[in-house]
Amino acid sequence: MILVIDSHPYRYEAEALCRMFLRGRELKIFEGADIPEDDFIYTGIFGDEISVRIKMDGKDLSLNAEEAENKAAKLEYLLYKLLSEITGMVPKWGTLTGIRPVKLALSLMDGGFSAEEVRRKFKEERLVTDEKLDLLLSTAEHEREIRALSKPESVSMYISIPFCPSRCSYCSFTSHAIEKAAKLIPQYVDLLCEELRDTAELMNELGLHLETVYMGGGTPTVLTSEQMDRVLSTARSSFDFAGVRELTVEAGRPDTITPEKLEVMKKNGVGRISINPQSMDDGVLEQIGRKHTAKDVIEAFYMARSFGFDNINMDLISGLPGDDFDKFRRTIDSVLELDPENITLHTLTVKRSANLAAEAKEMLGKSVDEMNEHAFRCFDGAGYYPYYLYRQKGTVEALENTGFCKPGKEGIYNVFIMDETHTILATGAGGVTKMRDPHGTKIERIFNFKFPYEYVDRFDLMNERKEQVKDFYARYPL
């Protein structure tokens, strides 16, 4: 399929919306006025006139509009209308393609719009369904309360442990199977501790205040208990934890959780952990490359409870290969029986870098929307509410990932990073420091080296980049 961009700067918006409908079809982009003979999607803007024409699947349709206040939004509106008519698809998030719809809604509310005005605007101009608007506005209400905790001097910290016991078929993160990367870990831990100390000095010099800490990956619990203790104790001794609201460790894989590691986490003040089954069906787990069973999940969960962990998150994924509605329903029932404080429901996202990408076309017909709707009803009935939400490119049926929690058990870091509330200082391979103006919306990024071997080999050069944090706060002072 060819997308023609004629005389307008909205290539990104047009491409993102087209990819949402084309679902795996190759999309080539041409700029100019030439219309190809084969199937195409034409978008053009001349003065106040916006034109869209689509020749596809034996149909040839067009729409035009004039004098649009927001030309990009109107272009997306016309594209959505035609693509929906031709394909029969009606994505429930309408023309919204960004990953932070809640942040968009909150920005409108901050500008004086009421919740009902936001609802009307998103429904009429963005074609978002009532079902997703209910989810959006409920989530926004809880996000708004959490982001109000942040002050100009507030920052959070991410600690990256980019290693896993095995690589899941759906994964596109920069994580490395432990059998191939084990020899790197001792030196990686040494340098990570050095980076943590350097980051603490930087924060103290700038007068920044640490709000939340998230140790993720990968799977941090692939570290030995001694290595984990080194990282956590270095963080606690280097930073002022007196006002830290939350310290999370993404324990993730139940087959990496041991009494010794739970004891280390408890000793170092970890208050929130994740134990992520993704599915509670052993056949599905095997198909996606997991090395644990549903029984292992249950045993790890109760082991964590025995060590006093009273804020446990569990990640689930709808739409996994080998899954179906009945298996998914049993997964929901099993997790709710455990009664964790947090449940994060991800809709399967297929990225080109994931091993699963080759199977993507086979999964496009799965009705994950039905799975999600069932899960949402069950979570609501069990006393959970949505507190953060984000979307990703390539998500099956263009749906969303949503975090649910019991009252008062929100994952605060999750809100801060998805809302881009304040600066996130990242340490470790693949970490991205995201600096936000304490009194505005300006955001700049600093990238750590992506792969662990780069992090180890070029550590000094990478660490020098953190000087950019000083430059940023000199330009945008507290």
Instruction: Enumerate the strands of the largest sheet in spatial order, edge to edge or round the barrel.
Output: 14-15-13-12-11-10-9-6-16
Profile the largest sheet.
9 strands, mixed
Residues in β-strands, percent: 15-25%
Radius of gyration: 23 Å
Principal-axis shape equals globular
Helical residue percent?
40-55%
Give the end-to-end Cα distance, rounded to a whole number of Å. 49 Å
- Report the average pLDDT across residues: 92
Protein structure class: alpha/beta
Instruction: Point out poorly predicted stretches.
Output: 353-365
Q: How many E-type strands? A: 18
Q: Determine the number of helices (DSSP H or I, runs of at least 4 residues).
A: 18
Describe what you observe in this structure.
This protein is α/β, with parallel strands linked by helices. It is 41% helix and 22% strand. The protein is built from 18 helices and 18 strands. The strands form 4 sheets. A 9-stranded mixed β-sheet has the order 14-15-13-12-11-10-9-6-16, with helices on both faces. Strands 2-1-3-4-5 form a 5-stranded mixed β-sheet, with helices on one face. The chain has a two-stranded parallel sheet with strand order 7-8. Strand 3 and strand 4 form a beta hairpin. Helix 1 runs parallel beside helix 2 and helix 12 packs parallel to helix 14 (368-381). The longest helix has 22 residues, at 185-206. The protein is globular. Mean pLDDT is 92; it is low at 353-365.
